[in-house]
Structures are given as structure tokens and as C-alpha cells.
Amino acid sequence: MTTQTTAPETPSARKADTPAGLLPLPEKAARALALGGSALTIVSTFLAWTWTTDFPGDLTVYGYPGGLQVLVLIGALLATLFALASYGIRGLGWLVPAGPDAALRFATLATFATSWYTVLAISVDLGGLVNLEPGGFLVALGSLAALAGALSLPFQRPEPEPIDPDDTGWEKFKHGAAYKWETTKAVFTAGAPRPVATLPSYAEILIIVAMLALGLVVFTYGIGTEYDEQFIGFLITAGFGFAALNKAGLIAHASQIASRHTNITICGAFVAAALFPFTQTNDQYATLGVYILIFATVALGLNIVVGLAGLLDLGYVAFLGVGAYAAALVSGSPNSPFDVHFPFWAAVLIGAAASLVFGVLIGAPTLRLRGDYLAIVTLGFGEIFRITANNLDGTSGPDLTNGSNGIASIPNLDVLGFDFGAQHDMGGFTIGRFANYFFLMLIITAVVVLVFRRSGNSRIGRAWVAIREDETAALAMGINGFRVKLIAFAVGASLAGLAGTVQAHVTYTVTPEQYLFAGPIPPNSAFLLAAVVLGGMGTISGPLIGAALLFLIPNKLQFLGDYQLFAFGLALILLMRFRPEGLIPNRRRQLEFHEEAEAPTLLTKAGA
């Protein structure tokens, strides 16, 4: 007996092969509505949105956007450009190498979300819609119209799966919901971008400079947001705006151009980062900058262990603590039992060497384990380190770490007569204490990046990747798995210790409670692992960007109070659901998660 199956009798199923929009509007009217709504949104940003300055950002001024209006203006300009490009206007084709429609949908979504968030925030904070000026109503109407027009643009709907007539009502509901979800994904799906043309070298280098300058501007704006509403609006605009640029194919083209000049791109990125302190009027945000670099450097070291070698280490923050304690003990702190003050270069070597020794001592007996068993052992090591440092107070054990009080009053560095604790004038700019340490950490980060690149492209790096992909096959091919994994563990530990030596001087005090497995304040082992996975395992830029986001966002979301970690965890879950390979994925790993993606002609040794 055979069971007859039929396709669902829905208009969308009957017209699966006919491109149509999500909303029932003709294509010409939809494009005009998207363009007109975006233009109207631009006009609204030059009008007052509220009558009182009680709402932060001063949205009462006519003719000059301020606060959240600037973010809405940026989103609307982006949407307008994509809308004009969709008409095939000459000179705008380079904006949409993968097609304009998906990019336009994301750009209008960014504008709509930021606009309506601002309008709702004004209404809630000030007590109702009566506090809105005409500009507030105009931006709500314009952004809604633009989004409606973009969603009405035609797209290729997926083919519906046939329905079994004997299915229960619940199974039919699940079938219909699955089809609707596939249709929603198809709305925001773009085609493959056309290959980027080969430009003169100077032109490609200028494009790289422009990209780095844009990145510096975005980071400086994000870290300098002055109030909660502005930072949330920044996250909305930046997130959907990046998605729009990605769907337009600009990110793919930028990546191809940067890959042709890798060394120039990396050097340019460090130059752009070095310019960050000069964009600040005080040392407030340089503080965040130096802590982000410490966190990012440790995450990059963990990326060798997790991203390249595939070893799950849940106690990695302990190596940061070993380096910090080792440097603090020999740097002239009055709480140190050794009463010595070594120069910085010696303290750095001692901190890195101490972490390396601990990495070897912990790795030698444990690296024969695999998977969850190795993770449990490393988690135990992290907790043993913290408890041991707590007990070495002269009562429960030898007087070495001063127990829970830690090693305090660690003096500022003085390298070749340059006092890192004092302000210095450079070219008319005043560089404060944290900016001095920012430059030092930038040099150390460059060293770590160099080690990562050279080791990842070396014979041992290829052995790490082989172990990560299939340890049994690697062993059968003659790779000494234990020795290779131990080297990864030792190198990662020493890089963490290197960052720990600077952290000890930046924070003045080293205590055991700074090195937890998990907590609301990074760095801790959970956040370090999240930074690697979030940014993209096995890449250089991925953990750096992941660490910056994971340090900056919790710092800016303190107004959520007890719900901070809940919101943060929810965001990570959504990201892992929709982009499990990370923000900047390793190309080989991206193909593992998205088998339908087009494979590159050639994969490099790192798979990027």
C-alpha cells in the first residue's frame, strides 16, 4: 500500500517558482517606497524628535542631528545608496557585487530598529507619545515605509516539501512553520558576489587604509558612547549594518583585497590601533583599550590550544595568573617576600617562563586524555591554582602570595627612563598612564600575532590542524600526537604569561579572585573560550574582535544589573545558532557548518 503525498495547497506553494515579495506590492512600487521611506528618514534626522532635553543626546535641535539621530542617519544613508543601486544607476554597481535587494532589506531593518527603539525609549522615559515632536513621528513613519518596501521586493521562494495526508495536525503545523522559516531565510539571502577586479597596488592599498580608518572610527564611537540608549542603538545599527554590507558582497570584496596584501593589512591594523589614544581627550577609554588588549592577547594564545590544536582548555586563565604573580614577585612590590626589583625585560621572561613550566607540568600527565576528560582536568587545574594562591598566606601554607589580599603596590614600569605611570606630551597630545600601557600591550599583541602566524603556517602548525581534524588519522600518518599537543599547550601558556606580566603592573594588585573560571567581569576562562568561539577559531582577527566585544559589551550593559549575564548569554546562544562558525570564520570551518557554501579553489595552510 502506498501513501499519496501532496504539496501544500497554499498560494506561496503554487507560486514557488515565481519571484514575489513577502508583502503584496508591485516591484516598482516597492522599490519606490523603500527609496522614498529612506529619504524621508534622512530628512527626519534634521528635525527635533522631542521637546525636552531630559532625554539624553539632545534631540530637540533642528538642522543638526545628535545622539541616536546620527545612527539613524547612517542607516538611512546606507539604505538610500542600496535603493539607488537597485535601479542600476551608473557608478553605484560596485556597492552591490552580490545584488542590492538583501542588502537593502538589512539596511532598512537597521534603520527601522534604531528609529523605533529611540521613539519607544523617548515615550517610556518621558511618559508617553505626547513627548514626541513631528520629527519623531516622521522617522517612525519613514523607516516603517522603507522596511515595508524592502520586504515587498521579489525573491526566490524555496520549494515546499510535500505533505503526507496522514500527518497529524501537529505535524502539519510543524511542516508549515518550517516552510515559513525557510521562506524568511530566503528573504535575506543574497547571491554569490562577483569576483573583485584586480586593481593597481596603490589603489588596493588605499582601499585597505580606508577600511582600517572606518574600523577605527566605528570602534572609537562604540567605546565612547556616553549613555545606555546610545550604546544599544550603536549595537543595533552596527550589527544590521555589517549584515547589510556582507549581503551586498562588500565584505567579501574587502577580504579578497586584504588577502592580497596580508602584511600591509596587519601592519596597518596595528597603526590604526596605535592612533586610538590620540582620538581621546582623557585616559578614561584608554583604560578600556588596554584591558581589551590584555584580554585579546590571552584569547589569541588560547586560540593556539583550542583553535589550532583542538584541545578544550577550561582553566586557561590560570596561566595568565601565573605570569602575573611571577612578575609581581620580582617587580619590587613591598608585599613580595623576595624583596627584589628586576627590570621589565627580566620580569617578562620570568612570567612567560613560569607559565610555560606550569603548562608543561600540567600538560605532560593530562594531554593523553581527550575531549571532555581533558576539559575536566584543565578546569580542575584552574581552580587548584586559585585556591593555592589563596592559601599561600603564611598561615595555611608558605608566605608567598599574601593570600586573598594578593600582592599589592606593584610599581609602575620604567623602561629606559620612560615612566609608564606619568603623563607624557607627544605632538601636542597628552598621553596618560593607561595610554602608555596601551602602547606596550600593542607591542606584546604584535609579538603574539607574529608567533601565531609563524607557528600556524609551520610544520608544527599543520600537525596541530591534523590533530584537531582527526587525531587517530594523524597518529597513523606518523605525527607524535602527545609531543605536538604538549608544544601547543606550552606555547599557549607562555603567551598568556606574557600578557600577565603587563596586567600585574596595570592593575597595581594581583589577587586570586581575578582568575576565576566564570564571572561577570573578564578575563576568566569562560569568557576567554567564548571570545575564541565567538570571533572564529583558528583565525587571528577572530579572537581579537571577539575579545573586544566580550569586554566592551558587558562593560556597557551594566545598567541591566542582575539581568546582564542573562542578556549576554541569550545573545551568545542566538549567535551560535545562526553563525556557529564565528564572526570571522576559518574558511575550512565555515564549510563544515555550511556544506552548501561554495568551496574556494585553494585553501591555505591555515584554511583561511
How does this model look, in words?
The protein has a two-stranded antiparallel sheet. The protein has a two-stranded antiparallel sheet with strand order 3-4. It is mostly helical and 608 residues long. It is built from 22 helices and 4 strands. The longest helix has 27 residues, at 481-507. The protein is globular and about 80 Å long.
Summarize it.
By secondary structure, the protein is an all-alpha fold. The protein contains 22 helices and four strands.
The SSE string, one letter per element, is HHHHHHHHHHHHHHEEEEHHHHHHHH
Distance between the termini: 52 Å
Q: Round the mean pLDDT to the nearest integer and report it.
A: 82
How many H/I helices? Answer: 22
Q: Radius of gyration over alpha carbons?
A: 27 Å
What proportion of the residues is helical, as a percent range?
Answer: 55-70%
Number of strands: 4
Going by helix content, strand content and strand pairing, the class is mainly alpha
- Shape assignment: globular
Main sheet characteristics: 2 strands, antiparallel
Strand content: under 5%
Widest sheet: strand ordering = 1-2
> Spans with pLDDT under 50 lasting ≥5 residues?
1-16, 597-608
